[in-house]
Amino acid sequence: MSLLLAAAQPWATLGTIIKTEVVSRLTAEYTARAAAQPPRNPQPNPETEFGWRGDVARQVRRLRTLTEDDPRFEDKKEAAKNTVDLSQKAVEGIESFTRALPSIVDPIRQYMMKDLFRGYCVAISGPIKGTYEETHRAGNQIWWRTKLTIAGKMTLYYEKGKGYSAKTGIPMKGWIEGNVTSVEFDENIFLIEEKPVTGTVVLRKKVPAPHMKTDLANKGTGTALIRASLPGAYYIDYTAMMTDKDLTLKQGDAKFDFTSQFKNRLIMVGADKALPIPIVKSFDFPIQPAKFVIGRSQEEKDPTFPIVVEKDKIKVEETWSRNASLRNGEATVNWNFSLKLETER
Fold first, then answer.
1. 139 FRET partner, CA 20 to 30 A, in 17, 198, 228, 310?
2. pLDDT tens for residues 24-68?
């Protein structure tokens, strides 16, 4: 609008129109000057920048659209928050991205692992499962036995383009996460405790450690941190060295392990004619943490497994057992485990 036309407008709006006109002209002039000169310290656009960060931005934009329509994302607000949290960590780099994965709901984590992470990393993963059995004796009789069935998923990865050689060894990082799926518990407490002399045991109840029967890590249920609240869940960091012949594992720290509530219990209620109220007694039977159960399943501290290469796929399949005797046979421990890994696609 020209200033002559502006003069015909009511006086109440004349100042606003003149101000808008002047600002528009100055803005157009400044824009033309700026376009004629190369920018100082140009800032890259994260959505067009080549590489990991650019892909993060693009994948997050796609993921935000998916979370609005995909029925797997029931809690839209939580899904949106997870997307933002994971993208912020991913922009910091691949290391931050992997450290953030335990707190992300599984549909988002699976999406980002498949469509983003695997474009920059080679990953091998698969189930680990096994049993762990402790038997305690008093003389020749068993007074306490515990058997756990444990399930989990191992993931190992290394970054592409680092110049690694399979002949000299490829360093890998990763984790195992999972949970106990069954607990067996037997006891004969009176082999080591005296029976009541005058009273009678009216109730003797064995309470196995609380656990979920579902293999949560391989089923993709919830997040790793949500699973951490379960008494029989665990998440253990690992490093590895892979050559063209074998894979050597080294156990790291546990991000979380069996909680203090994960233990077997025996509850007994006794009655005595001399007392007006029943006597209640409870015995706790502790369970070794998952880091011990898995880490001690082989005699070698850092076990090595042979690998098989089929075309462009890496496979590791191994089963193993171990038996140990403690205190001259008063306690025995038996492990039976299997591991199956292959390259993710």
1. 198
2. 554 555 455 555 554 444 444 433 444 555 666 666 666 656 555
Distance CA 60, CA 83 (A): 7
Q: Is 183 helix (H, G, I), strand (E, B) or coil?
A: strand
**296 located within any domain:** yes
Specify whether the CB–CB gap between 163 and 303 falls below 8 A. no
CA distance 37 to 275: 98
Strands 121-138 and 331-343, bridge-based pairing? antiparallel
Beta carbons of 71 and 107 less than 8 angstroms apart: no
Residues 171 and 311 placed together within one structural domain of the fold: yes
- Please give the model's pTM, rounded to 2 decimal places: 0.68
Check whether residue 157 and residue 16 sit in a common domain.
no
Q: How many angstroms from the chain centroid is the CA of residue 140?
A: 43
End-to-end CA distance of the chain: 61
Q: Within a 10 A sphere around the Cβ of 31, how many other Cβ atoms?
A: 10
β-sheet with 264-271: strand ranges across: 200-207, 264-271, 279-285
Q: Which residues of 145-176 are buried (b: 16+ CB within 10 A; e: fewer)?
A: bbebbbbbbbbbbbbeeeebeeeeebebbbbb
Residue 117 inside a domain? The answer is no
Rounded distance between C-alpha atoms, residue 316 and residue 309, angstroms: 9
173: containing domain: 128-343
Residue 41 corresponds to which tokens in the numbers above? 């310290």
Assess whether 202 and 339 both reside in one domain: yes
287 and 138: one domain? Answer: yes
Residue from 220, 218, 222, 294 nearest 258 by CA: 294
